[in-house]
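Archive transcription. Copying these from loose printouts into the bound notebook so they stop getting lost. Printout 1 of 2:
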Amino acid sequence: MFRLRLCLLCVLALSSKLAATPPLTTISDTLFNADGTLFNGVVAISWPSFEASDTSNVAAENLNVPINNGVLFVQLVPTTNADSAAVYTVQYDSLGVTEFTQAWAVPPSGIPLRVRDVLLPAGSVSGSAPAVTTIISIANVTGLQNALNVRPAEGTGFGVSRSAVIDATGAIDAAAGNLSDCLHVDGTSGPCGSGTGASTTFIDAEVPAGAANGSNAAFTLAYVPNPSASLALYRNGLLMRQGGDYTLSGNAITFVTGAIPQTSDVLAAFYRLSVSIPGVGFIDQEMPSGAINGANGTFTLSQTPSPSTSLEAFRNGLLLSAGVDYTLSGAVITFITVVPQSTDTLTCSYRIAQ
């Protein structure tokens, strides 16, 4: 009778112990190497101590799971619903070499999960933690209010994908104006070349005002090119000759009879407005020296382009390609293929060092 009672007590104790076993999630998957062969080795799983969702205390430990022919099978206590945060560190070893390491966050599941279901991206956190009920006011943090006071605030005109300006109150607003406008240091905006900074401005791809209708010859630029030779006027991508195809007076362009823009033509003007850059000079619309006779292929510029890639050489208004149409050595241009013919016109624009 005594032995019977003792056995009953053991069974009850064992039942109580089994009832306290925390829930487990099964991870089952097939692992491959990068070359498509099945992975063979050991998966070393380690974890810190944590409290499971049923308040079971899980001690910190390590577990080595052998992987034969790629078969992975392991059961682990879920961590995503744990009462304290926990993550499994999983190290893949093969032939005594650590291949790589992963972090697993295991959710509760009644069905087997694959590795992708528990894999935790780098930088992520997992697990639950007690809610914070203590409220800390700004005044409780020394210096926080002063630090917030000196930070710029968001203004009423704040907007994304715009240049930022600081308004009169010190708040950050979005710059107003057209997307093609230039922004001035006082926060105002306007067409590029306007305002007090107009004396140091490049004007690019401006479409001169005037009707391109096959009869109108008069067009107007927004500003006066300075110097006038800096004006590069293109018609359908072809450089027009100042003094040959058109004349320029102030900001007024007048085409000669045979060069009047037609209805389908596209005009684009590039020029400067008294640009002054220390150490940089500009040479505009220069005609290099050399006989244009269909035989001579060597021409000389008045100065050496600096950098050499700044040279824009035009033949009858068509931009030539360095290394294809010509070579440049110092100030000497040597044509590679077809030399200029007697009826051709050569013009060059470039920068120089001063």
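Printout 2 of 2:
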Amino acid sequence: MKRIIYVVILLSVLIGAGVLWIRIRGVDAKPGEEKPAAEESRIKHDEKGRVVISMDDETQGNIGLLVAKPAAVQLNPELKSYGRVLDPAPLAVLMTELASAQAAYFVSSNELARLKSLAGQGNASERALQTTQAAALRDQLAIRSATDRLALSWGKGVAEQNDLPGFIQTLTTQNAVLVRIDLPAGETLPALPTDARISTLSGNSVEAQFLGAASNVDPQTLGRGFIFIIRPNASGLLPGEAITGYIRVSGEPLVGVIIPSQAVIRTEGAGWVYLMNSGSDAFTRTAVALDHPADGGWLVTKDVTTNDYVVVTGAQTLLSEELKASLKPD
């Protein structure tokens, strides 16, 4: 009896294993029907190692891709450097000292002239005259000290402004700002610049007028500096704000194309654009150097030409599709 029970149990186990094996092998499928092959990956790489993403016209339309040929442009050569917005508070303090010294000298010099006139008439003592002379000389030296410190701290371009009080007022009210741009250590310019383009961390670009060379070397960068003024301060720059300066220098103009800002994506620590291939069904992610900001975009001097079609709307969506496809298992 026990033997019969063991046989029944063994048959049950074998039957259950057979059913499981059949399900795993796909016996439930219809006879002659094959499983669909895995969809070929839409992400490939060209001979240069660049990512190429394939996409049909319908999908392009669904995600709203737009392409355009970039415009040709040429700009004066520029030297890229870094700097900051200067705090006008120390300048205002020096201006107050200078104004106080000038006011004191105005009083002491007038008193000296009066005593000299009285002394000539015998109505002033020699001691009073000498005391007044010393006071006038002291006030005159105070003016010279404040003027020298102004020039040594801020350079002649600032110190020699025609209306220095009015000039400083525009800075303290932030209607205008001073920026200092420092060259790399050991680098010099063949001639003084005339102006520069200032790019902020937010990507805004404004024009700056050259005021003069800085009177000292920056202790951090160890490079020579140049002072520029941005007037009016339409971008709302604040003291201490970091900026990138593009100092215009003499030389051959830069020739390239303008890439709109919305066409540029940032990933892998670099800037990229998507270029549409000749068949209009694939896009190649191409690296671009973001060294020359321009109005509304970037000046690119290589790897993109006026004959290329650049994705100007939907570049970020393409990057997302690329990343999603790369995460799918084989």
